[in-house]
Specification:
Number of helices: 5
Oligomer: single chain
Distance between the termini: 19 Å
Strand order of the largest sheet: 1-2
Length: 123
């Protein structure tokens, strides 16, 4: 849960690098919270089956949108890619596959133009 809060603390930090661990723990807790919010939306009757989301879900999605973009950009920096690669998501199917591959790649072992290796700093 600490990784989730660390990402939220750096909600608009697009510089630096993010380890795989930071990115994937944020994604995991984000998914869990989204499911819990969907259940709550369904129980209190604010879930709209036609759109597939409720009022609380919309509020939560908007609240974590910027931190999610920021941690993804920092993750790309960790593998030596520019944050502009995030725009590849607009290419149907291929964009999502490329983003998944980038998200699972290991860090560049040494310092790169985006900063020092975060694995070495936290060790």
């Amino acid at each position: 849960m600490n990784w989730y809060f660390e990402v939220l603390k750096k909600y608009a930090v697009f510089s630096g690098r993010a380890r795989r661990k930071e990115y994937w723990f944020f994604a995991l807790f984000n998914l869990i919270i989204t499911i819990i919010i969907a259940v709550i939306d369904n129980v209190i009757g604010t879930f709209d089956a036609q759109t597939g989301i409720g009022i609380l879900g919309i509020i939560y999605a908007l609240a974590v949108l910027l931190p999610a973009i920021a941690v993804t950009v920092r993750r790309f920096h960790d593998i030596g890619r520019s944050g502009w690669w995030l725009l590849i998501i607009f290419i149907p199917l291929i964009g999502a596959i490329v983003l998944l591959v980038f998200a699972v790649l290991d860090s560049k072992p040494d310092e790169n133009q985006y900063g020092p290796n975060p694995k070495i700093e936290s060790a």
